[in-house]
Amino acid sequence: MMTTLAVVGLGCGSADGDEEAAGSGTTGVQEGDSSGSIAQGTGREDSTGPSADSSGGETGGGETTAGPAESSGGDSSTGVPGDTGDTGEMAEMRTLIVADENAGIGLWLDAGALEDNVGPDAVLGGVTGMPLALMRHDERLIVATDDPNASLVFFDDLHSLADGDEPDDVLTAAAIGGPIEPIWFDEPEIWVEANGDLWIGRYEYFQRLVGAAADGSSFDGSVSFGHPWWQLVSATVVADTDVLFGAQISGAGVVAWNGALTSDSVLEEPSFTVLDGVMPDAVHQHGDRLLVGGGSLMIWHDASAIAGPSEPDVTLGPDNGIDSRVAHVHVAGDALYASMPAGGRVVVFTGLDSLDETSVPDLVLGDALEPARAMLDDAGDLWVLDRNGVLRYRDVHADGSLTIKLNESAVDATDALVVAP
């Protein structure tokens, strides 16, 4: 029922919001660009569900296994952001924005001081359909909905949004080539690149709306990237080489299209196949790494060098704690967060440079029912989008304890953003 989570000010845009969050998408938006979503996007971080269980606001009920002890100020050896404390500006002044399929777009104006299941401080107006994804571009909030008369709605002055605010711009389904719809039981992957292009995962193809994030209804055309078999579920753009890497789930595997940011024509099939015979669910970029989740977690350390068939440098599987399908991957600093909805866990690996086939998770978070996405914010808090709400782990690398559940006030969450001051 949900698929994205993002951190604004952290970033979940084209590169999984990693650029803003730690320096992905994510559903969602990718990290690293000016867009952001706790879990959404192409694997920019790309993503992605809070809420431990349906019993209420307890912190128990799930498995939380911590690895080696780390200081509360963050681990300088791994580059994991640290918490500034309950009274620090970053911890207290962040805004949580949640898209809820029944309650619209809610804003919690002080994410650092949230308590279990408190309702939003404000609800935006003008969102008439079911919100499917949240994105950020600079000071603009973008909401994707299933309403053909308002497929994309744009709110300017992100940090000044208030109760009842109406959209500043709208794009209809007719203007963008058709309505935005869920893919099976999941929200479509939608993200924004740093250049202002807005991408939509349409299952049959990936669509780039040129300049739409920045220009809204004045956007400059559309380009699509397809596959003869359709069934395209996740993607990310490596801007340095102008390549779109995508996940085709029925056997074509990891595929790629040249001209991701520069092509002005329809590409009906990929330019090349990276790895066939696999069924990937999530594609994510962090720096020059390409990370692909599915039945395993595969990592290529040099995405810019991929121009044809290529085996991953590292593959993590059951012996490494990846014993269920990985639906979303997020990287912040030198830590990797893999969400496994069917397994009910988010596993965390630190020391990204040193990961190999002998690695095991440093942290296993088992409080969520079906965690769709996880995203670390600049204060060191981990936000998880779950099947029935949103969870927050305060200073996750210090003790991994669950501190907040919004599994009643945001029970039908489809996406979320955390906006830094």
Q: What's the number of structural domains?
A: 1
Radius of gyration from the CA trace? Answer: 19 Å
User: Number of helical segments?
Assistant: 5
Uncertain runs are 1-36, 39-91
Mean pLDDT: 81
Strand content: 25-35%
Q: At the third CATH level, what is the topology name?
A: Methylamine Dehydrogenase, Chain H
Query: Helical percent range?
Result: under 10%
Write down the CATH class: Mainly Beta
State the distance separating the first and last CA atoms. Answer: 29 Å
CATH architecture annotation: 7 Propeller
Looking across the biggest beta sheet, what order are the strands in?
Answer: 1-24-23-22-21
Q: Please identify the structural class as seen in this structure.
A: mainly beta
Could you give the count of β-strands? 29
What is the general shape?
A: globular
Account of the protein in words:
The protein has 421 residues and is mainly beta. It has one domain: 7 Propeller (Methylamine Dehydrogenase, Chain H), CATH 2.130.10.10. It is 5% helix and 33% strand. The protein has helices at residues 18-21, 89-93, 173-176, 212-215, 396-399; strands spanning 63-66, 95-100, 104-108, 122-123, 131-137, 140-145, 152-155, 169-171, 190-192, 198-201, 205-209, 222-226, 232-238, 243-248, 253-258, 272-275, 282-286, 289-293, 297-300, 314-316, 328-332, 335-340, 345-350, 363-366, 373-376, 382-386, 389-393, 402-406, 413-419. A hairpin with a 4-residue loop joins strand 22 and strand 23 (345-350). The longest helix is centred in the first third of the chain and has 5 residues, at 89-93. Mean pLDDT is 81; it is low at 1-36 and 39-91.
